[in-house]
Structure formats: C-alpha cells, structure tokens
Design brief:
Elements: E1 5-9, H1 17-30, E2 34-37, H2 42-45, H3 55-66, E3 70-74, H4 82-87, H5 114-131, E4 137-141, H6 153-167, H7 170-177, H8 211-237, E5 245-246, E6 248-249, E7 269-271, H9 280-293, E8 299-303, H10 322-332, E9 335-340, H11 367-382, E10 395-398, H12 401-408, H13 419-432, E11 437-440, E12 451-454, H14 464-473, E13 477-481, H15 503-506, E14 508-515, E15 522-525, E16 530-542, E17 546-551, E18 560-567, E19 570-575, E20 577-579, H16 581-594, E21 605-609, E22 612-616, E23 623-626, E24 631-633, E25 639-640, E26 645-648, E27 653-657
Helix pairs in contact: 5-8, 6-8, 9-13, 13-16
Amino acid sequence: MTKLRYGGDYNPEQWPEQVWDDDYRLFEAAGIDTLTVGVFTWALTQPAADTYDFTVLDRIVERAAAEGRSVVLATGTGAHPAWLARAHPEVTRVDFEGRRHRFGQRHNSCPSSPVFRRLSTEMARRLAQRYARNPAIVVWHVGNEFGGACYCEHCAAAFRLWLRDRYGSLDRLNEAWYTTFWSHTFTAWDEIEPPSALTEHWHGPDHTAFQGITLDYLRFMSEAMLANFRDEKAAIRESDPGTPVTTNFMGAYRPIDYHRWAADLDLVAWDCYPPDDEHPEWMAFTHDLMRGIKGGRPFWLMEQTPSVTASRDVNPLKRPGVLRLWSWQAVAHGADAVLFFQMRAGRGACEKYHGAVIGHSGRDDTRVFREVAALGAELARAGDAVLGGRTPARVAILFDWDSWWALEISDGPSRLVRYQEVVRAYHRAVWAAGASVDVVPVTADLAPYDVVIAPVLHMVKGDLAGRLEDVARRGGTVLTTFLSGRVDEDDNAFLADVPGPLGDLMGIRVDEWDARPAEVVNPVDFGDLTAAGRLVFEIVIPRGAEVVATYRNDFYAGTPAVTRNAFGAGEGWYVATALDQDGVDRVVGRVLDRHGLRGPYPGVEAVQRGRATFLLNHGAEPVSVTAHADASELLTGVSVRRGDPLLLAPRDVLILVQ
C-alpha cells in the first residue's frame, strides 16, 4: 500500500446483495480502499455447535477482493451467539453484583470460560485456514473492543492460579495484601475470592476494603482478556505466519492496561469517539497515548464517526470541515489508516442512528458523503508522503494504569481526584505550547527526553525513581504532582516521607495533606499570576527546593504549593495541589522554556511527523502564522518560503513538507 488506508467497518451481511452494487459504486466515488468485515458474524458463520457456514462471508471477501479493496478480516468473536449461551450458560459473565447474565448485548463472554476459549479459538483457526492465502487480507482483527469484567467461579479459579504465579507463596501474598488487617490472613489458595460487591466492596467497584486484592483483580482481568487475544492470534498463526494481527482499543480505557498488551500486538489500532465536539486536545492526548504503546510506531485509527455517534444521551453532529480536520489530526499524531464506523448505516438495533459514510437512503449528494469523498481524494494526493513517519518528541508524559487504578480505589485523601483528568491537564499544557509529546509507560526508555512529566504518579515501581533522577542528573527536567510517590507495586505505603523515592529528586517532604470539596479554592500565588488550587492541598516542607508559588489561604498560607529543586545539571518540579489550567500552563510553560521547547506556530496545533509539519486550526476564526522553513504544501503543491505568511481558515489544515 502506497498511501494511508481509508475505509472502515462494512457489514454487508445486514442487507440484500443488490445493495452491495450501490455500496461499491459509492466506495469508488469516495476513494475507499480498505474494508473491515466480519466483526460480529459468529452467529452467521457458526449457526450451531457442529455447523460452520462461510457462504455469506465468502461472498463478502470475494467481492471486496474483486473490487480491488483490501480487507481487515475480523474473527467475529466480540459477541457469542445465542445457541452457545443456551447450550453452555457458564459462558456468560457474572457481574460485580454476583448476577450471572443471560444471553444479550455484547462483551457478554467470560474470558476464563473453557468453552468460550475453545470455541472462539476454533473460530479464529477456521477463518485463518480458509482465508489466509487471500492476498486481499491485510490485517486480522481479533474480537472487538475487549472489555467486560467477570466474577464467576471460572474466573475465581483462574485468579488463584494467576496469584500463585505472581507471588509464589501465600506468605508473600499476605505480605503484599497487608492481610493482618481485619483478620484477612489466607492459609489456603482456595480461600481467596474475587473482590466484588459480595466480598470486599461497598458502594461500587472503587470502594474496597483491601486495595491490594482489588488492584490485583484489575491486573488479572486485563490479562485474562489478553489471554483470549493470544488464543486467537496463535490459532491464526497456524495458517498465516505474517499478516499483522490486532484488535481495536478504546483510548484511555480504564479496565484494560493496554501497555501490557503491547508485545502481543503487531500494530495498535483504536476507536476515536471523543466525549464532545469541543476539545481537540482530548484526541491529541489519546492519539499520543496509543502511539506510545508500541514505542512511537504508527497506529491505525480503526473507527471514528463521519457525523454522529449513537451511544450518549446527546450526540452532537460534526460540523462542516471537522471530519477532515480530525482525520488529519490523527494522521499528524501517527495514524497510518483513517477508518470509519460505519460504511453503511444499519437499519435497526441500537446503532441505527449512528453516523455512516452511506446513509439509509444510499445517497451520494449528502454533505457527509461529499466530505468523505473530498478527504479520500486528499489522501490519494498525499500518497506515501507521511506513511510510516515517526513523530519525534523531547517531552514525555508518563501514563500508568497501575497508578490510575491504585489512586481511584484508594480511601483518601480524595475520591474527587481523577487520574486521567490530571494527566490530560498537563498534556494539554504541552499541546497548547506547541511542543511535541510522547505519552509513554513508566517502563519506557527516558533517554530521548529533555522533559519528563509524571502527574499523580501514585505508584512508583522498580527502578523508576532512579531513572527519573538520571533524567535530571544529565540536565533534564522532571515534573510530578500531589499524590505521587505514595505506594509501592503492592499498593502499600512507603515507610518514608512523602513523596517516597521521589523525595531527593524533588527536594521536599510532604508533612500533611488537606482535602476539600471541589468548590473550595485555595488561591496559589505565583507573584504575577494567581491560580486556583483544588481538591488536595499538600503541606510541603522544602529540603533544598526553591519555592515557586505559595498557598494564600488557611493555616498553611504562605507555604509552598509549587517548588523547583536543582538536581545534578537539571531540575525536579513538584506541584502540591490540583491547579486550574492556567496554573498548569504556567508551570509547564516555565519547564518548556528552560529547554526551548515551545512551538513556533502559536494559535494552531502544530505537529511534526517525519518530514511533514501539520498545522491545524481547530478554531472558528481564521489564524495567520509565519512559515519557519522552506516547504511545499502537500495537498496543493504550493511552494512556501521561510517567513511567508500562512492563513488557515477555520477548521483548516496545512501540511508543510520539507
């Protein structure tokens, strides 16, 4: 393929075959070259336990190949068929409240069920045996949007085996879980129960008496679903040793630690459904997170809506130009494919009003279809100019599912602190300053980065503290925040001053901490700026650090809220409260300025990928900037000289290639 892939989810099994002729005529008009098929076809391809029928899927794949389209072939195992639930009721999930579900919805399979694992693996095996030699197949798509925790007896048994492997002995497990508390010491593995509303929890899954037990069950369930992926991938590999195998992630999805899946994925793909139509920084953050899973390698935008979603109470329409803008934004951040859900709108069920490239009437003169076709033409003109390109960055933001889980299941200091919101605030500050940033796991190599930002790094594992010190020692800057350095990998508090192993780098100790409702503000004084601090107010005692900003109210008025510590040739910054965005922007801006990392294109999103610089105007007003290098605009071919004025219309995109 010599261009970015373009297309999306196609479900022709839902319509009479005469409709397919219109579909392919419209695909040609829109420049669609890649179709994802078979995502929910288990009941179609296996209508009974001893019956496999690939007649319809054969025609779907054959037609796509004959029309010159590439195929992403799904295993169809994202929802099991009704006959399977009837024959084997144990295949359905038991929920957090202890209720065994009956057949319905999706995400409805127990990941530990031997029957589910056997039959889903066999489905993947038979598909690969049948289609592996078809040159139209370019990617295998396992399952769909993995999710759905289970608490059944199969999962309980699998959890105990997982714990044996993790801890080796009950003595080590009891130590990790701090089970001398409340007489919880376990003397046999079979005594251990999955943490649920019937055991350790009250008031929902985030309120647990034993954080260690709940944390490990979150880890276990993420890996149980990974085992399902591995089962199907291994079955595919029996017949197809080389075609990439992936699944579709859901961005910053709390139940699954995607970093632990990285080694098993041949490429990362994700479904981009922003919570509203007003925050492009949300998508920038999540693209950067997805790119970071495989060490900066390009990813696929596996799904996005061309117009509206259908999963929320209110579903805003993408305004004119936004489909193009957001698609190019994904490419700028590393996407090698721009795919939609869905190609033709379904007639019934819960997604019948979900946006589609082709609507129910099959027209080619709708605004949405015209915009899809125009984008297809642009992608064709762009060719391979950015395909496979990397997005270099000298700033890293650490993102850690363990810290996310541990923070939000903790009793105290505040249940109002949301991990992702804090991390996104710091990412937004870097994004708004125009600096490229990688969102990476805590295990990532930090050597390429001048700045490492670790918001609410609640859990500090392994050699991370030492590697952060190395960043500062060689002249870099490390920034962390309140509620960092609190617990070890077992979620037990460090027997040291807060922030634990980060204390020397930060040059402080936290003496006490205060937590207040969201409406309570303690102003934070930077001298020339007053920001708002909320939620958590740590009372900091410097141990060598310089005071940058102070609290203004309460008995700790005048004490440090932001500090900077000289460490080696670099610095460690500590932010002791949840600053508003102005405050976060101020702190991050000073860190970036120390390294000369602000971008040269104020007022627009500027992203470097390979030889291309993407300029994206997310605003409703035109923006004028100045070219900072000689280049050619990729989509028009117009030459640009350094110093030339560049005008971006509202929601416009310029791609400058040097």
